[in-house]
Design goal:
Layout lengths: L41 E6 L2 H10 L6 E7 L4 H8 L3 H6 L2 E4 L17 H10 L5 E4 L7 H10 L5 E4 L12 H8 L9 E5 L6 H13 L4 E12 L2 E12 L2 E6 L1
Parallel strand pairs: 1-2, 2-3, 3-4, 4-5, 5-6, 6-7
Antiparallel strand pairs: 7-8, 8-9
Length: 253
């Protein structure tokens, strides 16, 4: 019988595996904020188009202490994020953030309806030296924003979060109750301006009156904003009710 070809089986054949690195996906680069100069102490912007977009890096800098947004401005989260992405000292030094809601005429873009609690919380965290905040026409904000300012901005003297009639996330009063329970929080607060709640919101009114009784230096204004048609166009009217030491002081337009 003929023998077949010999096969060496003394040791198994070892296969060599070549390790191929996994393909890497492109990692997006974070765009660095442009370096800022000193800027203006009171950086005012009438609108969010030409004025803000073209003037941001000219007006806002390390010497900026107050930012004022005028009646042509539509405030969104994007503007807050752009501010927070700038030189850290800008937010760290900021003492005033003012948004004015004034123009409701035909074609007006003045609004803060797109501003959310998430952006406001980020603003409060990044700007601990704020002593005056004014957010008018902010229809999407809730008590979360009020709580954030009370938690992170210990120097606040004046705070306004208001909307216009019929469009609001009505505050329950929980944030005011928390302020009453923690008298050391916001010790310098002298003026608090909020939208007037509905008549059914007795919890809010009770908490507001109790807070002003305990904090005798605090004045609370409850505001109604109305859009009224006059001479063929729309205008904004306000009715405010002032409370101090648990009692109403006045109601005025």
């Amino acid at each position: 019988m003929l023998a077949g070809p010999s096969v060496d089986v003394s040791s198994p054949t070892t296969a060599t595996t070549q390790v191929v690195p996994a393909p890497t996906s492109a990692i997006p680069k974070t765009e660095r904020a442009k370096p800022l100069g000193r800027g203006e102490s009171n950086a005012a912007f009438q609108n969010d188009k030409d004025d803000w977009d073209k003037g941001f890096h000219l007006k806002i800098g390390t010497s900026t202490r107050k930012i004022t947004l005028g009646s042509g401005f539509a405030l969104t989260n994007k503007h807050i994020d752009q501010l927070l992405a700038s030189e850290p000292r800008v937010c760290g030094n900021l003492t005033g953030f003012i948004f004015n809601y004034e123009d409701v005429s035909y074609g007006a873009r003045n609004s803060a309806r797109s501003l959310t609690d998430e952006a406001v919380v980020r603003l409060a965290k990044a700007c601990p030296k704020l002593n005056k905040v004014q957010l008018q026409g902010a229809t999407s904000l809730t008590e979360e924003s009020l709580t954030a300012f009370s938690r992170y901005c210990a120097n606040l003297k004046s705070l306004e979060i208001t909307t216009r009639e019929g469009i609001s996330s009505e505050f329950s009063g929980a944030a005011l109750e928390a302020l009453q329970l923690e008298p050391d929080r916001l010790p310098q607060l002298k003026k608090l301006i909020l939208s007037k709640p509905s008549e059914r919101n007795t919890r809010f009114m009770k908490a507001m009156r109790s807070l002003t009784r305990d904090r005798t230096e605090l004045t609370v204004q409850l505001v109604n904003m109305y859009e009224v048609k006059k001479w063929g166009d729309w205008e904004l009217e306000k009715m405010s009710y002032t409370y101090k030491k648990g009692r109403i002081q006045e109601g005025r337009i």
